[in-house]
Amino acid sequence: MKPPLLRDVQVWMVGAITGAPADADEAAVARFVTPGPRLTAAERFDIYRSGYHARLLECLLDDYPVLATMLGRDDTGRDEEGQFAALCRAYVDRHPSASPNLNGFGRHMPSFCREAKLDGFPGFAALGRFASELAALEWALVEVLHAETAPPLDIAALQAMAPEAWAGARFIRSDALRLFRFEYPVNAVFIAIRIEEIVPDVPAPSPNAVAVYRKDMQLWRMDLTPAMLGVLEPLVQGKSLGEALETVEAECTDPDVLAQTGANLMVWFREWVDAGFFTRVVLPDPATP
Amino acid sequence: MNRFSLPNLGIGLGLRTVHYAHILEHAPAVDWFEILSENYMQTTGRPLHFLDRVAERYPIAMHGVSLSIGGTDPLDRAYLAELKTLRDRTKALWVSDHLCWTGVAGKNTHDLLPLPYTEESLRNVVSRVKQVQDILGAPLALENPSTYLEHAGNTMKEWDFLAALASEADCALLLDVNNVYVSAFNHGFEPAEYFAAIPFDRVVQLHVSGHTNYGTHIVDTHIGPVIDPVWELLGEAYKKTGSSILLEWDAEIPSFEETHADALRAKEFITPKEAT
Q1: Shortest CB distance from A7 goes to which of B72, B106, B216?
Q2: B243 vs chain A: nearest CA distance in angstroms?
Q3: Across the interface, do B153 and A38 touch by the CB < 8 Å criterion?
Q4: Which domain CATH number covers B15?
Q5: What is the pLDDT of residues A113-169, one digit of tens each?
Q6: ipTM score of the complex?
Q7: DSSP string over B162-230
Q8: Residue B70: inside a domain, yes or no?
Q9: How many angstroms separate the most distant Cα atoms in chain B?
Q10: A148 vs B72: CB contact, 8 Å cut-off?
Q11: What is the 3-state secondary structure (H, E, C) of B130-165?
Q12: Measured between CB atoms, does A102 come within 8 Å of chain B?
């Protein structure tokens, strides 16, 4: 008998591995797969089917260990499947991999958490915003790990700048820097789980800001006050230091924040440079009015 | 020596992130490292930083999992271009991947799926191997996979398929003796049948690794240590090839010293025993 066409075999097999269980029923499997010495055709096929979800769950667990801990992997009362596993199973179905590489596979998780509805976990919808922000923090660590390596701005270059040059200076941000405004204190949750090894309750909303960055090949997170963020955000958007300060003055209505900015700007700036937030400084062309 | 004149690098290890710090700090006396190609692709950051430090000091070979040489989607030219760039960067002595396919119609399962061993499938793989070798400008070494099922449409044995492929595409082979052991158990053949068909002059590298035996079947988990029957297969294969040896350990990875010590057990099985 003529064997089935290779393409037909492959289309069936991927559909049955990645699709609903009905796609891999025994009769369908038996058309394409022979039984082995100790396993039926369906049992042999199921090694691939179960491996598919397990492999991608493991990938997402690598990227989102704190989210997994907060959502619960196996203590939810369901057999073998915690809320994180259910989230990942739904994610894999919604965002199957189309890439030869898994480095970017988890990139949709922050947006997916906001929209996902999980069978068996009706309470997940209430967690969506928190889960999304925690996922964004964890995904930023992945992105920063893979971001291009460039030498950080040398503090000596700043010390050599004439005082009058500072206002027009633009600081080129490192690719390995991400800034976030969060509704929930997700960095505190991250610290509790990864450093203090405590699993906290889901916290109440408390607006905050965090920088995620890489320094000397290590990944770091830095809490930012509103005053810090007021200056840093326009700087990384490409505004000059003078323009950034004008933005703060124009938009800030809190006199405490303005006072903090005036008193601490140079200390913050040194800290940001030391952390490698910037790779170089561009001074205005003196010929340009 | 193999027909590609690729050297015997000795006994190497798969480079794993958990060992980076030890390797860079202690510069252990390892003959060579094999990298998982995809770990250093689609990144411009820390993985490449560490890889560059390792490649400065040790010979490197590249081993991939996503070429999908048996697939029926068009070859991924962007992937191949990046693979070539990585080879140039690391000066890898050869590039390998698996005799398998990974997905279809744009969907990637990230698994090493077994091919139907048919004439149509052989023609497809031969054509694709030739294209890949042209793009890389170097021989590609294909590894025999661990498999857990056999296709009802098979018209030839895996070893005959592999031998025909190597000859017709003029490619190299990476013989994974653990995979031979695993598939032999899962499908009920003798490893000697497999070895009898392999063109050993095309084998440029040997793999060993641990596996997980579930009684009814064995899964190629790369959890060590390597069991003696697999080491014995390695000894047999080495007699025929004298190729570079590499231990893969991918889950529940122990300390560098323990991993390396297991790799060095290869010496017990490749060194001729003195007569007593």
Answers
A1: B72
A2: 29
A3: no
A4: 3.20.20.150
A5: 999 998 888 889 899 999 999 999 999 999 999 999 999 999 888 888 898 999 999
A6: 0.95
A7: HHHHHHHHT-EEEEEHHHHHHHHHHHT--HHHHHHH--GGGEEEEEEE--EE-SS-EE----SPPPHHH
A8: yes
A9: 61
A10: no
A11: HHHHHHHCCCEEEECCCCCCCECCCCCCHHHHHHHH
A12: yes
- Domain membership of residue B247 as a residue range: 11-270
Element spanning B14, H or E: strand B11-14
Give the residue range(s) of CATH 3.90.930 domains in chain A: 150-282
Residue B38 located in a structural domain: yes
pTM of the full predicted structure?
A: 0.93
**Average pLDDT estimate for A50-70:** 95
Condensed to tens digits (0 to 9), the pLDDT of residues B182-238 reads 999 999 999 999 999 999 999 999 999 999 999 999 999 999 899 999 999 999 999
The total number of structural domains that make up chain B: 1
Cβ–Cβ of B149/A11 closer than 8 Å?
Answer: no
Domain at A150-282, CATH from 3.30.465, 1.10.10, 3.90.930, 3.30.2010? 3.90.930
Splitting chain B (276 residues) into consecutive groups of 10 residues, what average pLDDT does each group show?
93 97 97 98 96 98 98 98 97 97 97 98 98 93 98 97 98 98 98 98 98 98 96 97 97 97 97 60
B43 and A CB contact within 8 Å: yes
